[in-house]
Design goal:
Blueprint: H1 2-22, H2 26-50, H3 59-77, H4 81-103, H5 109-127, E1 138-139, H6 152-176, H7 178-188, H8 190-195, H9 200-219, H10 222-226, E2 228-229, H11 231-234, H12 237-250, H13 257-275, H14 281-295, H15 299-308
């Protein structure tokens, strides 16, 4: 366990710190941040949707909780971004726990509709709450860069790279543990899993809480990145669509699936945004998603595992 975590962690930290010394193109960090953000979101979505089979259409709600918590802490208390990420993730995790406690007994389309309703409710609360900025939003000033980073975006890239590594390694550990096997049993046949003695309700609560926490952590640095936060960008439909699509393209119920999907779809969207228009992003997601659902329902990891067998 130590070798599989600490050595890769040191390598990730080294890449995050040393890359800005060699790559001086600002847009690279601007685009890489978005890809890493979606990697964390897709990993969190896959934990609930891929492993336990509960589809979450409320990604924007958890993302916005993390983003607004971080923004308010920065504006009012000038807190460190790491503390803001922990606070935002904790509140989003508590929201996930509440969602799980109230709605996890719902299944299939009913649970999906409940998560979508949650996102709409959170958005309406933010829009109509003055101290959250309302529809006008909040302005955020980035802290000054510090060595060895010459730009704060470079630091955000390094931070998100390490956080994405932690999220992926956490899900990898869960997948290989008894908890991951119980999640898959719940997804396949929940009644049979419960009859064998698996504590399905507690495990589903764990899944919703951890998933919400990861999405909140992904949203917490967003105000530092964009410097202006308003409810419609913090709860963009693309957040949910991308999280779902990246997991399906890479392969659900496998820790590496969201990573592959985020890299492929995230990089493609960034290239299209620069060369053509950002309006094409949803079209690209739709075409790719339909193609994978028809030709490779198990995603890229499903194809790889099928060839190995």
């Amino acid at each position: 366990m130590k070798k599989t975590f600490f050595l890769p962690a040191l390598c990730v930290i080294a890449v995050g710190v040393l890359m800005p010394q060699f790559v001086k193109m600002s847009y690279f960090y601007f685009a890489a941040y978005v890809v890493l953000q979606y990697m964390i979101l897709a990993t969190g979505w896959n934990l609930l949707g891929g492993y336990t089979g509960y589809v979450n259409f409320g990604v924007g709600a958890f993302f916005a909780i993390g983003a607004y918590t971080s923004a308010l802490l920065l504006i009012n208390f000038k807190v460190n971004i790491v503390i803001a990420m922990i606070a935002g993730g904790t509140l989003a995790g508590l929201l996930g726990f509440g969602l799980g406690y109230l709605a996890i007994r719902l299944r299939g389309i009913f649970f999906a509709i409940a998560t979508l309703a949650l996102a709409v409710i959170i958005q309406m609360i933010i829009v109509n709450t003055h101290w959250l900025g309302g529809a006008n939003g909040l302005y955020i000033f980035r802290p000054e860069p510090f060595p060895p980073f010459s730009d704060y975006l470079e630091f955000l890239f390094a931070l998100m790279l390490f956080v994405a590594f932690l999220a992926v390694m956490t899900v990898r550990y869960i997948e290989k543990s008894w908890i991951g096997k119980c999640f898959i049993a719940i997804r396949d046949t929940e009644e049979a899993a419960e009859c064998t003695g698996i504590p399905t309700f507690r495990l589903k609560l764990l899944a919703t809480t951890l998933s919400g926490f990861m999405m909140g952590v992904a949203g917490a640095p967003f105000p530092y990145y964009i410097t202006y936060l308003e409810p419609y960008s913090a709860m963009d439909l693309l957040l949910t669509v991308n999280s779902l699509a990246m997991s399906l393209v890479g392969g659900t119920a496998h820790w590496l699936g969201p990573v592959i999907g985020a890299v492929i779809l995230g990089c493609t969207q960034q290239i299209v945004t620069v060369t053509i228009s950002s309006e094409w992003n949803l079209l690209i997601i739709g075409v790719v998603l339909i193609g994978f659902v028809v030709l490779a329902p198990g995603g890229i990891m499903g194809l790889i595992q099928g060839r190995r067998k």
